[in-house]
Amino acid sequence: MQTNVNHIFRRRLTQLVVIAEVPLLLLGIKAIYEPAYIDAWILLVGAVLLLVVPWFTYQQRHKLASGCFIGILSLMMVAMQWSTGGIRDNSVMALPGLLIFASMIGFNSLYNSLLVFLICNLLLMGIAADSGWVFDPSSNSFSNAFNISIILVITAIAAKILARDNINLVALLNQQVEEVRRAKEDVEFRALHDNLTNLPNRQFAEEHFDVLQHRLSRGMIANAAVIYVDFDEFKDINDTQGHAVGDRFLTAKAQALVDCTRVTDQVCRIGGDEFLILVEDLEELQLAQLAQKLLQHAMREIQIDGNLLHCTCSIGIVCLPKDAETYEDAVKRADIAMYRSKRDGKNRFHFYDRSMELIVNRRYQLQSQIMSAILDEQFYIVLQPIVHLESRNIVGAEVLARWAHPELGEISPAEFIPLAESNGLIDELWIFVMHHALEAARLLRQLEPEFYVTVNIAPNQLKSPGFFDQCEHVIRESQLPFSALKLEITESEMIERDTEFDATLDQLHQNNIGLLLDDFGTGYSNLGHLQKMLFEAIKVDRLFINHCHLNEDTGALLRAIVAMSGELNVGLIAEGIETEDELARVQELGILKGQGYLLARPMLVNDLKQALQTAA
């Protein structure tokens, strides 16, 4: 704002100097031709002296410039008045104009001094004329001087009022202009920056990417990179601590990212807990060192409201120009590399390579086709027989889902089940499997009346309020007893139990739907599960059995499980029996049931039906 005021003052004073110079030169030339050499000398000397005013204005010495301008003009007029006709001199007519000039550019002290000086000069000339000291005698010279003084005072007051209003108006306009300028700057800033962290946003990142590409094409920089940072488990902090704490935590983490980077690097928040860092002139080794630094800073705990909070981050890196040419491609591929870091266990970084995109494209393709695959019955089931080890009779079977993709062939459950979970279609897939599993059970129970099928439950299904109702509906549709179905729950799911989980388990147990604890020995191997939960059987993992003769603690734990299962009337099923030695070890431990390739491979329903018919 002060800059605007200075500019206006400089422009106004320069204009007044030009306005004064032109008539002074014309009057000076006229005085030479009259001839009136004294007046001509005063006018021309004053015109020359006024040339110093713009110089002082340029130097921003405003008071001195104003004083020189008003002082030179007033002394010129006084000199002309005293040298010729006194109050009858034509220059007296210019005194009101001089006061107006002073009100426009002068300061209060200068303005008041000028008014006093001019009035005193007029009165003194009136007295001098009446007394006959100078000038030609005239009647009432003092009275005329007094009248002129009154006119000057009135003019001065009016000019001062108008000047003050003008100054206030200019100040108000300047204030409004400044407010508009600040508002415009704020809008422009907000358009390119994040409201929470004040970091550059997605639009800024895209514009800066174009700058990097331009500098790369001109050879101004050797290389550049886009680093995608996503904070792991930040949602848990938001959900448990509240969004206000989450915002403070995220702001602190954003500052940590900035602290890790150089002034020339740009840290941008593109949404949620996702950030882009655009860097230049760093080789891959230096990028790796920067990524490691970012990981270390991200892990640091932050204390908020007395709570120590922490999370890790996953990072993906795209190198320019080799990995991408456009902003969209760079962000997409950095995102792919970042998700690779998440899939590999989080708290790590990966550089993008082409194979990652092929994997992600396949993942997206499969994920988008799961629903149509269910409707088109591309999914089917195979049955892994559960065998009584002593009699070798098949007593049940574990149901395994398979996907026969028309273009890609057989898709592994390890690939499509996580995809179904991530896009919310796991319930639809599970119901499909349940229908076919119970249909198979109904067919096979014609040959083996006590035959049952076991179906795996995906994580979080037991926490769904409508899970038991789904089970009940599907079983009643099959017209089978509830005992024909058993559900397998992994040990890891037991760690995250809640009241909804336990209530569903109670409903299943009360309705005679058997529960099997799956993969025991691969997780926590917690015997407390056997005491607290009413499991019908425990499925002991193959690795657990194979390690029991190598590790005394493992062997002791397994023998304790066998003993406790007998006391609690909980059955044991050995998984993954593939050799005669493994079978002998299982039988030596006293485990009665098992499954594995040595006993029977997974097979289609008709093949299992034929196996039962042969055994009969």
UniProtKB/TrEMBL annotation:
Q: What are the TM regions of this chain, as residue ranges? A: 12-32, 38-57, 64-84, 141-163
Q: What residue stretches are annotated with the EAL domain?
A: 363-616
Which Pfam families would you find in this protein's record? Answer: EAL, GGDEF
Coiled-coil segments = none
Q: Which SUPFAM superfamilies does the record cross-reference, listed alphabetically? A: EAL domain-like (SSF141868), Nucleotide cyclase (SSF55073)
Which GO molecular-function terms appear in the entry? cyclic-guanylate-specific phosphodiesterase activity
Concerning CDD domains, the annotation shows: EAL, GGDEF
Instruction: Provide the alphabetized UniProt keywords.
Output: Membrane, Transmembrane, Transmembrane helix
Show where the GGDEF domain sits.
222-354
Spell out the InterPro entries in the cross-references: Cyclic-di-GMP_PDE-like, EAL_dom, EAL_sf, GGDEF_dom, Nucleotide_cyclase, Rev_trsase/Diguanyl_cyclase
Q: Which PANTHER family match?
A: CYCLIC DI-GMP PHOSPHODIESTERASE PDEF, SIGNALING PROTEIN YKOW
**What protein is this chain from?**
Inner membrane protein PLUS sensory box protein LssE
Name the source organism. Reinekea blandensis MED297
Give the lineage: Bacteria, Pseudomonadati, Pseudomonadota, Gammaproteobacteria, Oceanospirillales
